[in-house]
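From the shared-data thread, chain only:
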Amino acid sequence: MTEPRALPEPYATTGATTGTTAASASGSVRLEAWSEGDAGLLRALNAPELMGHLGGPETEEQLVRRHRRYVDLSADATGAGRMFRVVLLPEERVAGSIGFWTSQWRGEPVYETGWTVLPGFQGRGVATLATRSVAERARAAGLHRHLFAFPSVANAASNAVCRKAGFELLGEEDFAYPPGRPMRCNAWRLDLGATGGR
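Structure, as tokens:
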């Protein structure tokens, strides 16, 4: 396994104590709301090896816009969604990002989720723990009954995360991401339950 990508402070150790925690026998993660200080993390997550299933790395201008969207989403109090940095415990190392946001699936308003884990932290269950934790956040936000994920059919690791996190595979669909770039993806759905959902 490769060493974790070097990140500027505060990514080596956050020292933060707030956020949602999810645990397993192999460790745990804490989700912390995305903030202005997370631009460096977004740049680290923009590496070619992490963006291969998403059309390749984004330009600096695109990253600036994405960072602004993430900050704004995390400041939104309507329940429309939230972005997070993923902190691996007990190391207190930032391992990636995850979030949920309002989207549409076949005309129905739903939540959608997506994640990225830095190379040095892959294969340790980080994405699965973070996905379970973000599902709890989406359930608590309560705007929509379902949480969806749309990984490329070629992305075996992300499809495995969906399966391990309890999502139901609905089948393959054509998707455009980034806009104008066709992609064949799997549609995975997690029922967040009737409580607080619609």
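Strands lie at 20-24, 27-33, 81-89, 93-105, 108-117, 146-149, 168-176, 182-191.
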